[in-house]
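To whoever is on call:

I kicked off a structure prediction for a single chain this morning and the downstream step that reads the tokens threw a length-mismatch warning. I double-checked the sequence; it's 256 residues and nothing unusual in it as far as I can see. Pasting both halves so you can look.
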Amino acid sequence: MAYPGVVGPDQTSQWFAQRAIELGVEFLEPIPQRIHSLVEKPTYPGAPGYARRTTAQDASILADWVTSFVRGATPHDPAPSRESLETIAGEGRHLLWIVNDEPVSMSAIVRRTRNAAAIALVYTPPSLRGRGYAGSVTAAVAEEAFAEGKTIACLYTDLRNPFSNRCYAKVGFKPVCDSTHFPRADFGRLIAVNIEKWGKVVQTTNVKADRGASGSDDTGLPVALAILRTVRERRRRAGASSGGRGLSRSPRRLGG
């Protein structure tokens, strides 16, 4: 079993990453994040324009923007193929903000639960930033989520980017909690290995083996289960010995 990284609030992801490092897994530098939620009608920043869904005619620009988003915001993730992005454009999964008949920003709902919708892929070309377009298209996506019957819209921000945090606060999003993301250093290699080994289509959020695969190597199911068991045990012991203070520092050398 392969996984792209570890994300969690408080010390959870740090515990997992430290145990995984002991078992030979390598991670990139941790990314400080914050989870925000919106439960009321969003506030539009006042930018001109309107939102519309993508169509097949938007295939090229959607592919360009998603690729640029991944390169800038999540360079540790493998970028989707241009062919798949061009297909997705015609499915109308993304919203575009339109000004003078031209797309200027995009956003999308990327996950849904019974009551919530997670928003991501918010992107505005550098030359068009600072005009309220990202906030406007995000507000439109939030309204879409509420129209579906969801009661909460949520999103992650990178705490190293104060602009995005201010942008979503203006829309009405409130901080819920901080989290840390430990991207896996060798995930691209694991994808290639598993595609060859199992012959399956691999998505960036999950790599699934066929039932016949044993998962007995150092990236298999036994490692994941060992990590989970050890995380729980070490958290229990640390809480008992330190009065619940947990770990005192973050790992600087993340494996290797």
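Update from on-call: the warning came from a stale cache, not from the record. Cleared it. Sanity check on the structure: DSSP finds seven helices and eight strands in the chain.
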